[in-house]
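pls read this stuff:
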Amino acid sequence: MLIRTLTIMALLLYGSLSHAALKALSDDELSDSVGQAFLQLDRSNSNGLDYTRLTLGLDVETSLNSDLVELGKYNRNDDNRGENTGADIRIRDFALGEVKSNGVIEPFQIKDPFIELAFEKGPSGQQNVVGVRLGFGGAKGKLSGAIESLTGNIDVNVFGTGSTIAPKISCGFFDIVCHGAKSLVGGTWADSQFKANASLIDGSGNSDPIRATKIGILNGQNLTLPGSSGFANFIVGLLKSDNCDLLGTTTCFPLTNFKSLDIGNNGDFSQGLFLSFQTKPVAWRDGGTTTTATKGAFINIPNGGINVSFTQAFEGIPRVRTKMLDPYYDN
């Protein structure tokens, strides 16, 4: 399965590249040229595994559309939940890139893509492939689709002013604490910027990194007020999400609500994005960061890679146009 997957991933990457005729450079032209190798091969080892990474020194711009992306479709019960149906990653009407209202294509951008293999030494000394990943030195652009299930590490920054949060707070008639908090959020802190971290969860607010269908604030996590006083953050810190609820406001959202996502760190390239396949848990390393991918298909979108507003979280994100004639485009 891994070799077949590697072949498919390589063909997808190859199909996204622009082709140009090769032209020999003169000695004078070569002396004026500064750059790095087109191909870079790195080898390392850690925790009993050997890694080989092939990096392509490329800047890629691509626009892709697929009726269905389904990866890791097999029976699995390693998460003790008996999940024997479905797929690790399933996205219908998948697309990368955007077509603007004036017909101009805004491509999905990739810097320094790479393919990495993880090997484990067998009992007779042979090297067995236990993992393969397609990674990106940087990625930026629109990712669209009806996300039905995800397996991986997805960190989302949710932000917004108190005035956008307060109307969603629902308090009982005698709930003095809730009414007081709503007054502060919608009054004193109406123009203050709140922030929360969201990740893959189940319907009860517990972490759910395998075949998740929801995203939201984990149980026990709270809102923060970056840049505000310690007292303000102390008060806000007392209000924690529990069982997908915070002051009568839902903190769990179906992944299908987010039909288009901005990949990128506040308009800049996001680093650490990768898609991988493993026959066992594998620790993938990027600089000083290690991400342990579970068995099967796994996607990693690190902190800062996706930013959404509270309004978008509550109301969902409509799909952007991804084709010149797009049947999935709502506007």
In short: The first strand starts at residue 39 and ends at 46.
